[in-house]
Amino acid sequence: MTETQKSATLTLNGENYELPIFSPTAGPDVVDIRKLYAQAGVFTYDPGFTSTASCDSTITYIDRDKGELLHRGYPIDQLASKSHYLEVCYLLLYGELPTAAQLEDFETRVTRHTMVHEQMHNFFRGFRRDAHPMATLVGVVGAMSAFYHDSLDVTDPWQREVAAVRLIAKLPTIAAMAYKYSIGQPFVYPRNDLDYAANFLHMCFSVPAEEYHVNPILSRAMDRILTLHADHEQNASTSTVRLASSSGANPFACIAAGIACLWGPAHGGANQACQEMLKE
Asked: Are 200 and 175 in contact (CB under 8 A)?
């Protein structure tokens, strides 16, 4: 955002307070109120952040009225049709689309980290079989901080990057394990010869007793679903992760907090409600 020559004047108890106005690269102008309490002794009241931006970000822009979703300036329809999920992950993390060499390196790093620590298998067995999968995800993702001690410092850019790659790589494995555990089937290890979406489907639906071939149409559909859900700006779970990380908590604990928020029926839980409605 850049500061403009414009400003807003707030009159309070006969006193005028000049508030700077910033212009973002996309979206409406914003009024900077950071010094308002110090100068005027008042707070603003905006439940739900309906008119408040909590940070300066160039990652995602959403205009709900126009049905517009941009990742780093790229329209989501272009990314969904011409790209794939891991390429979009790279775009969100690093700010630009990768070269062929950069994409190959990133895909290799993700693929080589899809397995979880073997002791985490025992952790799953502490849950009831009928536990909600989000409850399992909250517990297991939070427990990653007990296994990967070299990427816990949220203030270290390199450790944050390592944690991000590990989370992207291992969350499909953990989600598939949660599903398999709930239906009483054995865990399926990830396969490095499959792409990201196909590997997730294979871990969810294959069994040791027979060969399983991932339907390429379903794999592509899953990849697009992941792409469409990759980032949704300042939503509830994103705000939760940012709030948790502001205390210096490790990345795995912060993401676990975000998953707990996503569980809510007014957020990600709405998807579950839609599925149940369709079944009915």
From this structure: yes
- Which structural domains are found in the chain, ordered by start? 2-53 (2.20.28.60), 113-279 (1.10.580.10)
Whether the pLDDT of residue 267 is over 90: the answer is no
Chain center to CA of 272: 18
Structural contact between residues 62 and 73, judged by C-beta atoms closer than 8 angstroms: no
- In DSSP notation, 178-200 reads HHHHHTTPPP----TTS-HHHHH
What's the CA gap between 243 and 99, in Å, rounded?
33
* Beta pairing partners, 210: 207
Whole-angstrom distance, CA of residue 27 vs CA of residue 61: 8
Q: Give how far Cα 89 sits from Cα of 138, 154, 187, Å.
A: 22, 19, 26
pTM of the shown model: 0.88
pLDDT tens digit sequence for 189-217 = 999 999 999 999 999 999 999 999 999 99
Which of 247, 261, 252, 245 lies closest to 140, judged by CA?
252
| CA atoms within 13 Å, Cβ hemisphere of 112 | 7
User: Distance of CA 167 to CAs 30, 42, 273, Å?
Assistant: 33, 41, 26
Phi-psi region of 163 (alpha: psi -120 to 50; beta: other; left: phi over 0): alpha
- β pairing state of 30-31 and 68-71: unpaired
